[in-house]
Design a protein that fits this description.
The chain is an alpha/beta fold and 203 residues long. Helices cover 40% and strands 22% of the residues.
Length: 203
């Protein structure tokens, strides 16, 4: 928890010296990004969360591209749309709106998050925020602070299987989903992300 306290202090300091601060929280699926961002948002005033997951391509498009089995991989997101929105948010010249991914409905909802131009702190989280591949590698220049959650593979595996079990899948299907998609995505994030300003281990 001391690492979280230190991170809160860093963000507050940046917010005092910048008109707007964009903080990126990256890490493999199951590393605890959403949990950390929720905690930061609770402790900070004048902050809003903009998740990368809102830019999932719709299932109809994924079906057409034969990407449904790999939903959650880099190719299954509108990366350029996410980058464009962050550039717009970076400018802080107008109120902007971000989409959010509804896991229950398995689809994105447009303009579900309001970012007022007066908002000082933007917390954005996702698997590929620091991925060293085009077009994701255009994101780093937009961040004032980047954080990477480093979690052992065995822990990720356990969490990802549990996630699918909690969604009602059988143990066999939960294991298959984790091994065929989630864990390869986790390996990509772990091996192909650029260095972050802050690394938090075993969150």
């Amino acid at each position: 928890m001391s690492e979280v306290n230190s991170l809160v202090d860093q963000i507050k300091f940046l917010a005092e010296t910048h008109n707007r601060v964009i903080v990126a929280i990256a890490g493999a699926p199951g590393s605890g990004k959403s949990t950390l961002v929720a905690e930061l948002n609770k402790r900070l005033s004048d902050s809003v969360v903009v998740p990368m997951d809102g830019f999932h391509l719709d299932n109809i498009i994924l079906e057409e591209r034969k990407l449904m089995p790999r939903k959650g991989s880099p190719a299954s997101f509108d990366a350029d749309g996410y980058i464009y929105l962050l550039k717009r948010i970076r400018g802080a010249e107008e109120t902007a709106y971000a989409p959010v991914f509804d896991r229950r409905l398995d689809l994105s909802k447009a303009a579900a998050i309001e970012i007022l131009k007066e908002t000082r702190i933007i917390l954005t989280e996702g698997n590929y925020l620091l991925l060293d591949q085009a077009p994701w590698n255009n994101l780093a220049e937009l961040f004032d602070l980047s954080v990477f959650l480093e979690v052992p593979e065995a822990v990720l595996r356990e969490r990802l299987i549990r996630r699918w079990l909690d969604h009602g899948l059988s143990e066999e299907k939960a294991l298959a989903r984790a091994e065929s998609n989630d864990l390869p995505n986790a390996e990509l994030v772990t091996q192909s992300s650029i260095s972050a300003n802050v690394v938090i281990k075993d969150f």
